[in-house]
Amino acid sequence: MTTVEDDVDRDYTFTPEEIEYRAAIRAFLAEHLPESWVSLFSRPDAVEVSNKVTKELADAGYLIQHWPSEYGGKDGSIWMQAVAQEELWAHGEPRGGQYMNVNWIGPAIMHFGTEEQKRRYLPPIMRGEVLWAQLFSEPDAGSDLASLSTSAAVQPDGSFIVNGAKTWTSYGHLAETGFLLCRTEPGSRRSKGLSVLIIDMNTPGIERREIKTSLGTNRIAEEFFTDVHVPADALLGELNNGWAVAMTALGFERSGSARYARSTRVLGWLERLPESAAPELRTELAELLAEGRAAELANYNVVSVKEEGRTPTWQSSEARIFNSLYEQRVADFGETLLGPYVRVKADSAPSRAVAEVASLTTSQASSATVTAGTYEIQLGIIAQRRLGLELAR
Fold this sequence. Notes:
CATH class of the largest domain: Mainly Alpha
Distance between the termini: 42 Å
Shape: globular
Strand order of the largest sheet: 3-6-7-10
Largest sheet: 4 strands, mixed
Number of domains: 3
Radius of gyration: 21 Å
Structural class: alpha+beta
Helix content: 40-55%
Strand content: 15-25%
CATH topology of the largest domain: Butyryl-CoA Dehydrogenase, subunit A, domain 3
CATH superfamily of the largest domain: Butyryl-CoA Dehydrogenase, subunit A, domain 3
Number of helices: 11
CATH architecture of the largest domain: Up-down Bundle
Number of strands: 10
């Protein structure tokens, strides 16, 4: 995409190459996704389907097209990846948990990792063969991540002994590798004295339990660490500087999700329903389309920041807010039109339209303002990093 920038506005225009790439991704998904696929939340074999399709995306060269060639990519533009993001999210994000690997775990390792870490961890991500877990939230440190207490005691040989607990971890019970934020400086407070460790999730001393939720296919877990030995070479970035690593990673995470594309696809289904013809609903529909465009542009702003070689901060939070609120308003609109039908399971829905609306409404939108940092946390980031405001303590 080419961008024309002045002090106020950016104008976004997709190039012919990007338009062609979008068509190729759509054709790939039409061929490789099961006809019954609705979303990650809609079927018991979602993880198996996700792993299979992710491997096929990698084999076709679509998974990490934007990565540098030295790490297995094709030196594609950030905009090419944004195109893929939109199509994949519009079609129920078939990469599942592996979208984390491509969007922020891989880039974080590229940015902070040693050469040995890059050689070890990036190729499996490139091939679509590994599932990671983001081990950040704790029972007493969710939105207030800096208050975490999981400790990693540094040993004389540089290795670590980890004790503590993590919770609300996507795919935590299935992941092979973990991206662990922990406290490595005894007595440190808040964001000081933290480090990031890359850990083998099958290490002795790690207990994993699934957390049952109402969101459909179960993909949430909690983890308990009891005297878990982690080698010295697991440290990502500098010792006690893990907050910088985590915040960089979260910046990529919050900007790597084109959730608005899914909401817009669902809105398209709703627009076709006879019930939406009522004048007052047409007005609401128009307002929602405008909100969707605003969410899209907020995400494009983040892509532009990345393209310029900068790390997005408040821009990612802004995009996340637009995405979440848009998603929830589309879900509310769907419930207005469909009533109790939005509670049906995908395999019981009378049509594809109802299945997709139901999946968005019951399984995704309800948690949109909580996951990847709550709505309030995102507002705080914008207040501090964009507006320069001091937050009350």
